[in-house]
Amino acid sequence: MPDTTATDRTRPDRLPEWAALGEHRAMLGEAHLRDLFAADPERGGRYTVQVGDLHLDYSKNLVTDETLRLLRALAEASDVAGLRDAMFRGERINTTEDRAVLHTALRAPADAVVRVEGEDGGNVVPEVHRVLERMAGFAERVRSGVWRGHRGDPISTVVNIGIGGSDLGPAMAYEALLPFTGSEAAGERGVEVRFVSNIDGADLHEKLRGLDPATTLFIVSSKTFTTVETITNATSARAWLLSGLDGDVAAVARHFAAVSTNAEKVAEFGIDTENMFEFWDWVGGRYSMDSAIGLSLMVAIGPERFREMLEGFRTVDDHFRTAPIEANAPMLMGLLGIWYGAFHGAQSHAVLPYSQYLARFPDYLQQLDMESNGKSVDRAGRPVTWPTGPVVWGTPGTNGQHAYFQLLHQGTKLVPADLIGFARPVPGMSAELIAQHDLLMANMFAQGQALAFGKRAEEVAAEGVPPEQVPHRTFAGNRPTTTVLATELTPSVLGQLIALYEHKVFVQGAVWDVNSFDQWGVELGKALAKRIEPALTEGADVAGLDSSTAALVSRYRSLNG
Ligand code: F6P
Fold first, then answer.
1. Complex-level ipTM beyond the 0.95 threshold
2. Which of 134, 237, 492, 545 gives a 20 to 30 Å CA spacing to 259?
3. For the whole model, what pTM was predicted?
């Protein structure tokens, strides 16, 4: 096993390969994509990778063959492949939590063998498939109406209560796969799913609006089952349910299910562990959407489509494990991000889906990427002297075009961006709406082109623009994008996309030598909130508050009378 915490490990920015990239960057200077494309008519075809149904075009990045060679050398020197293989083998690469990192086992085929290092439990794959089977049985019962509420009614709405990784993945995927929810043709009933995450009571309040407790099923999703937001919302949901069902506590068993690694806490909360779907500590919260955390999604789309999604994940897992670095999509995407962060000073990375169904994909990626690689010490605990994870952000591209794209085109910040689009619209829309797809995609292609090639002052002037306006209407271009053009947004393609980004994040963490699988940075705020809360609810004194927080607390109290 590679010793990931070794203090004699060469820091990335002291590797000769890092220095070589620095020199190469200086030599490239402001080499323009216009010139790179002009010098190599094949560029647009050469700098592409096909993985499953995803076509990745990275030709509009600020790279040459030499850049790619040097980036590959950096990946080799950092032994990204070694760490990747250790992850797939079940080694405990999450050293600060002493855990294996095995989200890839969640989509392994039934005959695969994956063991967790240092555990006697043996192969985890049969256990994964056992839970999948239980989930499928439950989902089918709910979807078909066999599962009945306390008063004998079938379930029409599932409310998923969870936060972070226990919310963002299923919520994103539910929206992405809305066209695959229910199917009258197959005689399936559509079950609506709503997602509640915020401790702000407004979230639950709004999501319960119009619901009938007799036909509502809550799925409480929490890896730890101790997360304050989730347990508080689940407790309020329970009270709402009981008040609507004459206070009969027997109703809880028919209206509450749980997804967790913590059976004890689930039982303590009062949910029958018969209705609990488990996962394991070797699945990180932000890597858990294809575990039982996806139960609400499975209820919505059905087990078969959920399995298709898992197959999509697996397609990219296999590619990541086996493709050489230069033809390996997650490797390339990860290395490009490192190139921009360390050698171009990029602070952020935009993800711009040209798909309304993927509206929540950037939110999902924020946790995946920023909770994984927003670190400032290396795996041995030493402060890093190189930039780590970027700020990840984005919205559907067309909407962004009318908002912040101005800055992308003419601002002073370099923002590398991913443009994600689909060759075909999802079926089921009217012919008129399907026809809008070409316009949508024309926008995506146009933005990649405009960002890369810009518009020169001479071209602007040649259009008769008055000289004083020319600088305002000039586009410098040379703004990098990677285009992911997929066939169609199906469950499998969604799985492929998610795995692509999971592994991209892995590659970056491996090169930056950070532990991408812990999240200690979220703990301090949680602990402080616990200390401050009694001051707000009971007027208790909180010792040791700074003058700003103390004044805010006291103003809050006085405003509440
Ligand atoms: O606070 C951060 C975090 O721990 C995430 O990593 C996690 O996805 C989320 O909270 C929810 O945790 P849980 O699933 O244990 O409720």
1. yes
2. 492
3. 0.97
